[in-house]
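The records we work with from here on pair a chain with its fold. These numbers are not coordinates but entries in a learned vocabulary of local backbone shapes. To see the layout at work, look at the sequence and tokens printed below.

. . .
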Amino acid sequence: MEKITLTVLGMSCGHCEKAVKGALAELDGVGDVSVSLADKTVTIEFDANKVKVDQLKEAIEDQGYDVQ
């Protein structure tokens, strides 16, 4: 498993956290997801053989957030 931390703008509440976690959990190969609203980051453990970083970013952006 690989781990990546992405900066995500626009998250401000528990609903935002739930939306991001839910979108990422639907992707095959995603393990643990941790969201820090204070730091505006999402840390994702994932299997690079099953899912690509671009797919992770797209899943977050599809929820209406900006990934830096």
Q: What stands out?
A: Strands lie at 2-9, 30-36, 41-46, 66-67. The helical segments are 14-25, 53-61. The first helix runs from residue 14 to 25.
